[in-house]
Amino acid sequence: NAGVMQNPRHLVRRRGQEARLRCSPMKGHSHVYWYRQLPEEGLKFMVYLQKENIIDESGMPKERFSAEFPKEGPSILRIQQVVRGDSAAYFCASSPAEETDGYTFGSGTRLTVV
Amino acid sequence: AQTVTQSQPEMSVQEAETVTLSCTYDTSESNYYLFWYKQPPSRQMILVIRQEAYKQQNATENRFSVNFQKAAKSFSLKISDSQLGDTAMYFCAFMKRSTDKLIFGTGTRLQVFP
Asked: What is the pLDDT of residues A32-89, one digit of tens each?
């Protein structure tokens, strides 16, 4: 049973470009969460999704950031017109419908904006 | 709003010795979970141990145990017989039961010396 798969592992974008980060949850997991980790800080919640629904996006910046979890395929975190301050590690986690044991995290995508 | 505080930015311990990492939190909730996650240099977030607030008994996982003091809102992690592979960042996290959202502390960097 593969874990949570994130790709790419590293992503470099120039200022103004778009970044697309992908997350495939563990088999049988229907809940996906995205977190951001700035250098030397803990992870900060961004968004919680279930299939085709955004449940909680209270941690998402109001502009340029969006997330989706379609019926088929991976969850996507999209950052438009990236700026230097978007440089961070972005983690995806997944859990089954009845979460009792905590999430399973992916290995993260490190985004560098140059 | 809930907050999690880890007051020790860095700790070190000699191999085979015991070390305790501190964590305090602030909440008005009565139904919640607490977690310790380990983040080695590989960046993977690994669940170390989990505690349910309504359980008075402290959680234990092999060499890892917690001291959960609900009234004091304290949740420290004890690592016994420290191993070189325990070298990592350790994050304490809080989850209100109904939200599925983790709130992390800023982490403690643990170095285990031979």
From this structure: 999 999 987 889 999 999 999 999 999 999 999 999 999 999 999 999 999 999 999 9
Beta-bridge mates of residue A12 = A112
Q: List the 27-46 stretch of A: residues with Cβ below 8 A of B.
A: 31, 33, 35, 41-45
Q: Are the CB atoms for B21 and B38 separated by under 8 Å?
A: no
Q: Are B24 and B8 in contact, with CB atoms under 8 Å apart?
A: no
Mean pLDDT confidence for A18-31 = 93
Across the interface, of B45, B102, B105, the residue whose CB is closest to A45 is: B102
Cβ-contact B1, B101 below 8 angstroms: no
Query: What is the reported pLDDT for A1?
Result: 54
CA distance B81 to chain A (A): 25
CA pair distance B19, B14, nearest whole angstrom:
9
DSSP string across B5-62: E---SEEEEETT--EEE--EEE-S-SSEEEEEEEE-TT---EEEEEEETT--SPPEET
Count the Cβ atoms, other than its own, within 10 Å of residue B17: 13
For the four alpha carbons of B101, A96, A111 and B8, in that order, the dihedral sign comes to positive
Closest CA to A92 of B40, B68, B94, B45: B45
Specify the 3-state DSSP secondary structure of A86: helix
User: Which amino acid is it at A15?
Assistant: R
The Cα–Cα gap between B95 and A63 comes to 27
Give the Å distances, CA to CA, from B41 to A35, B7, B78, B90: 18, 21, 21, 11
